[in-house]
Structure formats: structure tokens, C-alpha cells
């Protein structure tokens, strides 16, 4: 496959939150599965690809579509990946059908522009979250609704992470329990590469677990649940005033991780 131009749109899942690296100057860089996918794609294909990532943390499904989709299509990609709805699921009043409509819009626009859609479902964080049962039920409903929208479209590339019970385990999640860590992001990247009929690095499926102390009880609520609640009460988002990390094409060559 030559002349691959891959653009990703979405929220914190696609931005890569939870998989942070520190460079030689001490600057923290957010990586994530889409960055890993771009590198793995170039490596597996043995040829450079172009990569852009417009995802911004905290975004709901329809703002992703309204703010990122047309900008992504304007880059004239060959492939576009989309995931959304994780933040919507945490708002019980949001209708599942309304979230699924966003997926249908992305599919329609990709069809119109001749772009290959890569559709992802997010991983299941419910085991570690307060009110995890509610998150699980809504995630099950959203996953079923989205799969139903593409049931007659075998051409859509599917990378479905929600049903992956191993990925739902705590060793794949960062300290906030809502975002995957590097181990989780590598597993997702491996799944997308496999869906593209490319061979991922075998270790990506199950990197060694890095054990460490995890916040529990009141300390966890102070560090992670409290700030989330404050953002809901004030109508703010973790993505406010942030811009996309790769809004234009980045050339990714084999072996340049």
C-alpha cells in the first residue's frame, strides 16, 4: 500500500491521554494508540505514511464531528479513524441514539469524499470507576447501536475494543482509571493494525505490566473524581483552550519511533 494519508479525530482516547512520555528536555508528550498506529503502519508497510491527529480531550461526540471532521477531510486523507461517545456516556441524560447519529454522519461524509473509515470503539473502563455498572450498561448500549449502524457495511474497518475483557483489566489503565496507560494504547494500536491486515509488533498485544502504587479511597476521589465533578458544575472541559497536536501532515518513516 502506497501514498497512505491517515488522519485521526476524536477525544482523549485518540489524543492519547494516559500514555505520556518525557523527552530529553523534560517536556511531557502525549503519545497514544494513534501515534503508535502511524509508526506501526509505516514499519509494517515498509514505506512512509502521512499522519495527522485532530483529537482533543474532553470532547463530546457531536462536537468532534462539528469541529474536527471537515478539517480532517480537507486534508484529503486516504484513511480516517473515528471514535467518540466516551464523555457522552458519563452524562446519563444523553440519548444513545443521538451519539450513534454522530457515527452515521462520519460514515456518510467519508463515503461522499471517498475516504476509508476506520471505526473504533473505546475500551471498557467500568471495572475501576465509581458507578461502573452504569458506565458498563451505557457502553454496551452504545457499542451495540454503533455496530448496528454499520451492520451492512463490511467495507468499514472495525477495531472494536469495548468487548476486549483483557483490555478492561486494571493493568491497562492509568492512575485516573478513565484513560488507558501505555500498555493499553499499545494493545489498541495492535488491534487497528490487525484490522488493516498489517502485522503489529507481537509484544504490543501484551506489554509487561509495570506495577506501581495506585491511589485509593479518598486520595483517588480528591485527585481525579473531584476535578471531574468541578468541570461538570462549571461547564468547563479538560480540552478547553487546547489545540490539536498534529493538525497538519506529519511524515512518518519506517523505523523512526
TrEMBL record:
Domain SGNH hydrolase-type esterase per the UniProt entry, residue ranges: 8-186
The name this protein goes by in its record: SGNH/GDSL hydrolase family protein
Alphabetized UniProt keyword annotations: Hydrolase
GO MF, any single term: hydrolase activity
